[in-house]
Amino acid sequence: MDTITPNLIDTISDLLKSGVREVFSTMLNMTTRPVTLMDFRAGGEMLVAGSVGFVGDVNGVVYIYVTASFARTLASRMLGLPEAGLEGEDLVNDVIGELTNMIVGSVKSRLCDSGSLCVLTIPSVVRGQNLSGWPVCSSEHHLLCLITATEPILIELLIKPPK
């Protein structure tokens, strides 16, 4: 069975961290920094997860998890609306989907620039407790965590080995 080289996993992980930093800085005026893994998915709190896949020379999917309360804060900042003005979950879900799309889009762009052509899937968003991506047996799984001033962002990367 082919495996992903640690170099590719490290490269994509670094691109994800850079993508989060750039998107959060530009779109939300927030700084992020990598931290030791804090896997908060099993804590029982309501979560919002955006996912976007990439298909081509490199195949995989990225899930970005935040708490539901932080998702509302992100939507408020991105849309320039008070949190109280965000009725329901639709706007919040749209913002999380778009942030995920921008972050994974920046990874895709840099992969394509280096000669690894790929395209993105349509973003999707789910809400729930104890969420987790479901790795297929042939994919490799990697977690990384970033934090804003107070809120963690968990990124789950699933990559399928090349044939």
Question: Biggest β-sheet, characterized?
Answer: 7 strands, antiparallel
Shape: globular
Helix content: 25-40%
Number of domain units: 1
CATH topology: Chemotaxis protein chec
One letter per element, helices H and strands E, the order comes to HEEEHHEEEE
User: What average pLDDT do the residues reach?
Assistant: 89
**Under the CATH scheme, which class?**
Alpha Beta
CATH architecture label: 3-Layer(aba) Sandwich
Query: How many whole angstroms does the radius of gyration measure?
Result: 15 Å
Q: Low-confidence parts, pLDDT < 50 over ≥5 residues?
A: none
Number of helices: 3
CATH superfamily: CheC-like
Summing up helix and strand content along with how strands pair, one would put the structural category as alpha+beta
Strand segment tally: 7
N-to-C span:
9 Å
Strand content: 25-35%
What do you see in this structure?
The chain is built from 3 helices and 7 strands; from the N terminus they run H-E-E-E-H-H-E-E-E-E. The longest helix is centred in the middle third of the chain and has 24 residues, at 90-113. The chain is α+β, with helices and mostly antiparallel strands. Strands 1, 2, 3, 4, 5, 6 and 7 form a 7-stranded antiparallel β-sheet that branches. A hairpin with a 2-residue loop joins strand 2 (47-56) and strand 3. It has a single domain, classed as Chemotaxis protein chec (3-Layer(aba) Sandwich), CATH 3.40.1550. The radius of gyration is 15 Å and the shape is globular. Helix 2 crosses helix 3.
